[in-house]
Amino acid sequence: MGNPRWRARLRRALPEAGALLGGVGLALLPALRGDPRVGMPVRWVADGGAGEVLALDAQDLPVRRVAVAGARALASRPGGGCWVLGAGEEGKSRLARIEPEGEIVSVATLGAARALVGTADGAAILIEETPAGRGIVRLEGDGRRTAIAELAGAACLAIAGSDLLAGRDPGGLVLWRLAPAPEAVRGWGLARRRIVQVAPGPRPGWWWALERAEGGGEAAAETLHLVDDALAPRWSWTVGPGAAVLAPVPGTESLWVAGGRAPFVRRIGPGGAELEVPDLPLRGIAAGLAAADGGVAWCAPGALLHLDCDGRLRRTQGGFASLRAIAAVFE
Q: d(Cα 298, Cα 25) in Å, to the nearest integer?
């Protein structure tokens, strides 16, 4: 990572240096002609700046393009489709269901909404502003709505199987069991803490939670917690300030963390920082998706940036306006 030629190569590839398609991606194009994965969707991305959602193949070439104004959040659906949260009129939000072929088959208008996640049976769950504050709602593929709970301070959601975890800012963690129907709260954790991001953990019932320091603003230090099925911390590390995006490595006590405003990327494990990616000339990372091999894809302004498990640049793909979300395609 300290190699000056690598840094120069990365700077040329990123939109901040004015490139539309990374040099690494261009170098790979001749080899793609014989790649059988080319043309098969493997991930969805939301390009909020361009007002569209794209299905990309294994080398980040567009397979589908779907117009969605202000697209900013995604959740995969079984069978290869997805949910996308976009902008509506007068501050409202629009939730669209997209089929694998790229057809929008349903649209729901909501209050200001955030924190979209998808269920194993194809529904969407999100946080919606309500007259009483904030509520957690479930929407089926046919548009039916179910209120799960009113939850003051609700800021983020994560789902694993039939368990739904909400992070509150402030208020800590709240856990529900969704099947066969939403039950009362099953657990509370990190009481009174400011939880700004959550994600499924490496074992059933375990979760990642990112806490912002009490009373702090954007420059406040964040603490990463791995909590068990009792929502008690197994270990915790300070990772801020500026941490905003989590990308857990599946099946491991390790995850990637990126700064939304500060230009840093690091991987955290039980022993703290396992890997630091220095000199990354990039700000504004909005989302990430880690792979089982330990690599990660980052949504950056104008580009999709792939690092391998050692933090080395694998490839880049430019040509986007402002990527806001990424999700794997579920077959």
A: 15
Q: Dihedral (C-alpha) 47, 257, 119, 304: value to the nearest 10 degrees?
A: 30
**Cα–Cα dist 158/199, whole Å:** 5
Is 31's pLDDT higher than 70?
A: no
Q: Which amino acid is at 331?
A: E
* Residue of 19, 72, 79 whose CA lies nearest to 45: 72
Tokens in use for 208? 């990642």
Q: Residue type at 52?
A: E
The predicted model scores a pTM of 0.87
Phi-psi region of 68 (alpha: psi -120 to 50; beta: other; left: phi over 0): beta
**Cα(275)–Cα(264) distance, rounded to whole angstroms?**
11
CA distance 120 to 299: 24
Written as six digits, the tokens of 151 are: 């939850």
Bridge partner list, 62: 56
Q: What is the dihedral of CA 61, 66, 69, 73, to 10 degrees?
A: -70
Top-confidence residue, 255 or 32: 255
Tell me: pLDDT of 48 over 50: yes
